[in-house]
Amino acid sequence: MTILRPLAFLAALAPAAAAAHDYDAGDIAVLHPYAIETPARALTGAGYFEIRNDGETADALIAVEADFPKVMLHDSVEEDGVMKMLPLERIEIAPGETVTLAPGGGAHVMFMGLDGDPFEVDERFPATLVFEQAGEIAVEFVVEPRGSATGHDHMDHDDMEHGTMDHGDMTHDDTAHDAEAGDHGAL
Ligand SMILES: [Cu+2]
Could you tell me which CATH number the domain at 18-146+155-181 has? Predict the structure, then answer.
């Protein structure tokens, strides 16, 4: 009697997935990491992707590393009609679930310190996604035009244009602590 080996079967499929700009490690797959082009003088750029958990235990994205002065996970929340970006410590992916990060609000990766080197369409850059269980997954972000239909969204990007936000005044380190303390009164 032949013993089925599902893991070996999945491993055999991996090269095909990689060709489609997807990456995986263990039970976690990262699909189509992309960033949105930025204005020439932008200080920050946003990155998005889908994460699929094919396993039976929860995992979480806890960090993104890339060659920028600072990279953070951010969440966008509306408070009194004003969009704010707050640091996000982790993005949970339940077993069997797919989490989608996409333009238009919500979680995103914030690449900070672009200063004079904007994201240009078709540019690619490497990054490492760090997961609590699956460990590190090396990926490549590809820069896409603002407002492009990547199959993820048809929202109005203008609502969430990072360039128009108050990133300049926002010292992210300080904000992180305020946000954790939940001190809305001070904001
Ligand atoms: Cu942000």
Answer: 2.60.40.1890
Q: How far is the CA of 131 from the centre of ligand 1 (A)?
A: 20
Return the CA Rg of the chain. 18
pTM: 0.70
CA of 153 to the centre of ligand 1 (A): 18
User: Which of the four pLDDT bands, split at 50, 70 and 90, describes residue 67?
Assistant: very high
Percentages (nearest 5) of helix, strand, coil residues in the chain: 20, 40, 40
Ligand 1 centroid to residue 75 C-alpha, Å: 7
Cα of 162 from ligand 1 centre, angstroms: 7
